Amino acid sequence: MADLTRDEITAAPRVGTGALPRFETALGPRNSISGRALIAVVAIMTFLASLTTGAVVLVAGAASEWQSDVAREATIQIIPAPGRDLDAAASKAATVARAFAGIGDVRIYSKAESSKLLEPWLGSGLTLDELPVPRLIVIKISRGATPDLPQLRRILMEQVPGATLDDHRGWIDRMRAMAGTAVAVGVAILLLVFAATMLSVTFATRGAMATNKPVIEVLHFVGAKNGFIAGRFQRHFLLLGLQGGAIGGGAAIVLFAAAGLLTRWFAATPGAEQTTALFGSFSIGWIGYIAVLGQVVFIALVTAVTSRHTVNRTLGTID
Fold this sequence. Notes:
- The protein is an alpha+beta fold.
- It is built from 11 helices and 4 strands.
- The protein has helices at 6-11, 33-71, 86-99, 111-116, 119-122, 149-159, 169-211, 213-221, 226-265, 270-279, 285-316, and strands at 73-78, 103-108, 135-141, 163-166.
- A 4-stranded antiparallel beta sheet has the order 2-3-1-4.
- The longest helix has 43 residues, at 169-211.
- The chain is elongated and about 100 Å long.
- The model is unreliable at 1-25 (pLDDT under 50).
C-alpha cells in the first residue's frame, strides 16, 4: 500500500543495466478500500485514546482540588453529654482554635445548621432535640501554613471536655487512592489502544505486501534494498496515521470543548453545580489539549514504525 511510483522505482539501487518494469500507478493508493479502512481504524483508536486521556486529566484535576480543599479544613466536634453546655464548650473550643498558630478562619455551626446536615439521610421535619447531635466547628488552615494539628488536638482534649479534632486524613488518603487508580486504569486503556493500533497496522501492512508481492519481489531481486522498500511503506502509513489521528483527535477536542461550553451555559442549575463540584468545569485545559495533539503525532509514528518493522521482517523471509 506504499505510494511507490515509477520514478521512485527507477531511482532504486539495481543490479545490471536492464530497464526496470514500468509502473504508472502507486502501490496501494491511499484512497483504496483498505487505506480508507485503516484511516477509520486509526481515527477510532485515536478518539478512544483522547477520551481516555481527557478523562484522566479531569479526574486527576478534580481529585487534586478535592484534596487541596479538604487538606485546608479540619472539624472540631463537641460530643453531647449529660450536664454539658454545648454552646459554652463550642465557644471555648473556637477560642482555642483561633489562638492557635496557622489557623485562619473558625466557624461554629449552630444547632439548626448541624441538624440540616443530617436531612439528606434522616429527612426533613424531624425533631432532633432528643438525638445526641454533636456541635460542629469548622476551622480553615491559612494558605501556606502547616499547623501542628496533633498538638491542637491535645490542647482541645485538655481544655474542652468532649472535643475531638478530625483532620480528614482518612478522606485525603481515599481520594489519593481513587485518583491513582483512575490514572492507572487510564494508562492501561491507552496501552491497549496502542496495542490494538499496532496489530491493525501490522495486518494492513501484510495485506498490502501480499497484494503487491510480485512487484515487491521484483524490486527485491533487482537490487532494491530492504530499507528502500520499507521506507516507502513507512511514509505511506505515516500519512495514513496522521490523517486518521487528526480525525479522531479533532473529534475528541470538539467534544471536550462542547462539554466545557455547555457546562458554563448551565452553570446556574443545581445539577450543574453538583457535576462541577465532582468533575470541575469539564475543561481539560491547555495541558489536556496538548496531550491530545501529542497522541495524534504519537499514533502516527506508531503506525509508521510498525509498518516499517513488519515490512523488514517480511522481506527478511524472501532473502
